[in-house]
Amino acid sequence: MNNNSNLIELAEQFVKHELEYDPSGHDWWHCNRVRNVALEIAKYEKADLLVCELAALLHDVADEKLNESKQAGLDKVRNWLLQYVEDNECIDRVMTIISSMSYNGGKNKPLETIEGQIVQDADRLDALGAIGIARTFVYSGWKGQQIHNPERDFSSTDYRSNEKTAIHHFYEKLLKLKGLMNTNYAKEIAQKRHDFMEAYLKQFYSEWNFSDIRKDI
Ligand code: ADP
Ligand code: NI
User: Which residues make Cβ contacts (< 8 Å) with residue 133, sequence separation at least 6?
Assistant: First the structure.
């Protein structure tokens, strides 16, 4: 086993310790999927595999929503890296990605390095398609949000407000992501997952507004 695979195993253990059964859509399996997709894109783009893999695995350990503050989350990851990674430049590159990759209502600046763009794409792809829909409903349940409420308009409600609905999240974020992918690889997958979400919404509304229930079957 070389040093990097040892390090990755330690990172996996750390992520499981922090997030294994997280109930808000950021559990170990989310981190694992993001890592696998990030590595796939990184090979294609000839990017730094170690930086991509560490940033993908660790990205949600630092999530502001799951920590006392943004800084507390980032410190937790930096302290772990300082314990196990000798190369300070690698630590800085991973930390720069993790601290700037989140969606944040679409307000963050585009990432500058190819590694950052790849990890951000991998994380965003996991918010799309069948898995993205599942995560949206899990997150909504965790926050105590309704599934849908056609009587309310949330267009001017704050991005982090708990008053919104799962269906509203498709419009405030999910349907915008395909236009925000960085790499061509991710753009292609995003389009397919986007189409699936559009089909899902069509079916959702037809069930919600049925006039002849046999049309839904
Ligand atoms: P990420 O892991 O991509 O950083 P977030 O922390 O933003 O994701 O959210 C976790 C999951 O919950 C994602 O699939 C995201 O689309 C979804 N989500 C985020 N905010 C909301 C919300 N207000 N309502 C419903 N789902 C949400
Ligand atoms: Ni994530």
Answer: 197, 200
CA dihedral 149, 151, 157, 161 (to 10 degrees): -30
* 60-74, 127-141, 152-166: segment of lowest average pLDDT: 152-166
Model pLDDT for residues 66-81, shown as the tens digit of each residue? 999 999 999 999 999 9
Task: Report the nearest atom of ligand 1 relative to the CA of 168.
Answer: 24
Q: How far is the CA of 60 from the centre of ligand 2 (A)?
A: 5
> Which DSSP string do the residues of 163-198 spell out, in sequence order?
TSBHHHHHHHTGGGGGGG--SHHHHHHHHHHHHHHH
* Rounded distance from Cα 138 to ligand 1 centre (Å): 9
The CATH number assigned to the domain with range 3-216 reads 1.10.3210.50
In the prediction, which pLDDT does 212 show? 62
Look at ligand 1, atom 17, and give the residue with the nearest C-alpha.
136
pTM recorded for the entire structure: 0.94
